[in-house]
Amino acid sequence: VLMAMGIRHVYALMSFGLCMFVTWTIVSEFIKGAGALRAKNAMNWFSAMWELTHRNTRRYGGYLVHMGIVIMFIGFTGSAFNQDKTVEVPIGGTFDIGRYTIKVGELESGRNSNYQYGKLPLHISANGEDLGVMKPEKRFYFASEQPSSEVRIRRRLNEDLYLNFAGQSNQEDSKKVVVQAYVFPLVTWIWIGYWATVFGTLICLIPSKVQRVYLKTEVVGVAPSAHARV
């Protein structure tokens, strides 16, 4: 399926394949256990899953921790498809990165008591769809006499788009600006995996509803000897 989607990176395919295998293993454990409880106690799936986890929090909380790590590895694998580009573009010009087309608007400049700033409107579109305007900012602080960049980020489940206004071109034509653009696929999945790991860890700390019961051994007395009976 991944190859049909156009993914040809060998290590990425291996990583995604292993993640899918572990995911199916964990999900099947929940399905089998919850299915048995559901059939026995006439529960719905959600209640059965909750009861199953509550009965053995260490085991199923551990599964959730493993699932969180798998999700993080999906995010890490996305780094194989990172894209970046630094371009000099005239005002009103456009450039492409990945599936995005970015058009440069008129520079907005101003100042306040702390710094002088320049905001660069960048109009984003993808496959003909307007995705709005992002305004990365370049600042110069008076007190420290240091420049600073304020990056703008468009976060989505499939990928993040980072845009940075690096400044104006050093050429005589001051109408050109320098823009740095980055596309980071699947970064959000790292954060999802992190919170899933935290949630699984908290589940592990909850005492199980059904405690393990160990059979008690009873000491059987020794029959008196014949001499004792006499």
Description:
The model has no long low-confidence stretch (mean pLDDT 85). With 230 residues, this protein is α+β, with helices and mostly antiparallel strands. The longest helix has 32 residues, at 10-41. The protein has helices spanning 10-41, 45-55, 57-77, 187-205, 226-229; strands at residues 83-90, 94-97, 100-104, 108-111, 115-119, 122-126, 129-134, 137-141, 146-150, 152-155, 159-168, 176-185. Helices cover 38% and strands 31% of the residues. The strands form three sheets. Strands 1-12-11-10 form a four-stranded antiparallel β-sheet, with no helix packed on it. Helix 1 (10-41) crosses helix 2 (45-55), helix 1 (10-41) runs antiparallel to helix 3 and helix 2 crosses helix 3 (57-77). Strand 2 and strand 3 form a beta hairpin.
Which descriptors apply to this entry?
single chain, 230 residues, alpha+beta, four-stranded antiparallel sheet, elongated
